[in-house]
Specification:
This protein is of the alpha/beta class. Helices cover about 40% and strands about 15% of the residues. Helix 14 crosses helix 15. The longest helix has 15 residues. The termini are far apart. The N terminus is likely disordered. The chain binds ligand F0G. Ligand F0G binds next to helix 6, helix 11 and helix 15. The site of ligand F0G has 23 residues, from helix 6, helix 11 and helix 15.
Length: about 450
């Protein structure tokens, strides 16, 4: 039984084990590189005692709901609120939390009209404490890093992981080391890592090069790695799906669409869906689909050209720097989740992504470029007949609009796609460039009048 429940009756919580996703070898502990000691593949966390002490669905749903009115820090976290299906804490106070999770589910009426899907929603993970979905995984992984007694944590990142890791490390009193590709992450994300006190190294390589180096480092130095190779991260990120299903009163939507980079998030959401089905929390699975940028389409190619059997790495290039990844670590996990849920994998162009981002922005909620691939991808999935107009669709918006202001300003300023006249025309109605005027009432009145009649 949970020793950490602070409100409502307690339910059983299970000790976890690590299982290799390739050879299924099970162990009670993991090496610092979080790879299988037998075959070197990735590990996942399993809860072998769930079979004996499965939480009773109505009871556990009630407890999760009940914790929302508690003032205890662990209940105020939208991640630890679901602790009955997470690795077990010894005591509530050990959770390193910034009140992550509990993110809004928005309707998207304008995007509904554009796509022809009336029941279209956005689950906005950009509303997390550091502005991205990474916080939901980081609270769990940072907690277990601290418990293991590490002084240093480290990650390779395209920006959001580093911002999140630096914040949670600071809260936990640990030092943090960030490896990011020089010149290829947004200033907003870099500034977060600096402010939260990380030792921030801008390496002359890409994300894949940073991750490779980190993997070597953790074998040599007492540093705890917080990339999504670390399966504790994915356990925390699972709660996105739990919270989403709760927001739908446990009636699953037909589709969940998520951007794909290193493919940890799609793996986590898929794992949560399968576990929820297994525990009897939901009656059926939503289809989980992954959308990538055309210039960073390793999973798309892996599924189309290699039947998901071996990874096809690509030299990654996209303005959505968050997903500028060519050698995704969790490709096998994600490929399995798409197969298990019957989801699709699509790619979108830079133009399609930029347009979709402006369309989401016009709803008054906004997101960062990588998140917008979900809407652009949905348009394609509707065209292909994979998503039907009468189905319920949820787009996972992974990062906040303010994460990459340069992108937004370049787009609205008309600098993004150069002088291509046909492109400019197709984006004209979406662009709202800033207007420089003399500081006179007349000039402002004229601008207002022009805008009214344009
Ligand atoms: N969206 C955003 C905003 C991201 O920051 C990332 C990944 C993704 C989508 C893709 O998620 O990797 O789980 O498939 N950002 C990582 C980082 C790689 O370092 O911040 P994924």
């Amino acid at each position: 039984m949970s020793s950490t429940s602070t409100s409502g009756p307690s339910v059983r919580q299970s000790a976890h084990q690590f299982r290799c996703i390739a050879c299924a070898h099970v162990s009670d502990s993991a090496e610092q590189d979080f790879r299988c000691g037998n075959c070197g593949d990735l590990l996942e966390i399993i809860y072998p005692y769930w079979k004996e002490g499965t939480p009773d669905p109505p009871q556990v749903k009630f407890i999760w709901q009940d914790r929302k009115v508690s003032f205890s820090p662990i209940d105020l976290s939208g991640v630890w609120r679901f602790r009955d299906v997470l690795p077990m804490l010894e005591k509530a106070e050990e959770a390193v939390t910034l009140r992550e999770g509990n993110t809004p589910l928005y309707e998207l009426p304008q995007c509904s009209r554009i796509t022809g899907v009336p029941r279209l929603f956005a689950k906005h993970q950009g509303m997390n404490p550091t502005g991205s979905f990474k916080d939901t995984g980081m609270t769990v992984a940072a907690t277990f890093a601290k418990r293991a007694g590490f002084r240093w944590v480290a990650c390779a990142s395209t920006g959001n992981t580093s911002a999140s890791m630096a914040a949670y490390a600071a809260r936990a009193g640990m030092r943090s080391l960030v490896l990011v590709p020089e010149g290829k992450i947004s200033w907003s994300k870099l500034s977060q890592a600096l402010d939260y006190g990380a030792v921030t190294c801008q390496l002359r390589t890409d994300f894949d090069g940073c991750l490779k180096l980190l993997q070597e480092l953790v074998r040599k130095a007492p540093v705890y790695q917080l990339n999504s190779i670390n399966p504790f991260r994915l356990e925390g990120q699972k709660t996105l799906a739990l919270e989403l299903l709760e927001q739908f009163d446990w009636n699953p939507p037909d589709h969940i669409i998520v951007p794909g980079g290193n493919l940890g998030n799609s793996s986590a959401i898929g794992k949560a869906l399968l576990e929820m089905l297994d525990l009897g929390l939901i009656p059926r699975l939503p289809k989980l689909s992954v959308i990538q940028a055309e210039g960073a389409n390793a999973l798309v190619r892996t599924l189309r050209e290699a039947g998901g059997k071996r990874l096809i790495s690509v030299p990654a290039e996209t303005r959505a720097t968050a997903i500028r990844i060519g050698n995704p670590a969790s490709w096998k996990k994600a490929a399995h989740m798409l197969e298990a849920t019957g989801g699709a994998c699509e790619q979108v162009s830079e133009l399609e992504m930029a347009q979709a981002k402006a369309e989401i922005g016009a709803e008054g909620i906004g997101c960062e470029p990588a998140s917008a691939v979900t809407l652009a991808g949905l348009k394609k999935l509707v065209q292909q007949g994979f998503v039907k107009p009468d189905e319920t669709v949820v787009l996972v918006l992974t990062g906040n609009l303010l994460k990459d202001p340069d992108f937004t300003i370049e787009f609205h300023g008309g600098e993004m796609f150069g002088d291509d006249a046909s492109t400019a025309k197709s984006l004209e109605l979406l662009r709202h460039p800033p207007i420089v005027l003399d500081a006179t009432l007349d000039a402002v009145m004229r601008t207002l009048d022009q805008a009214e009649h344009s």
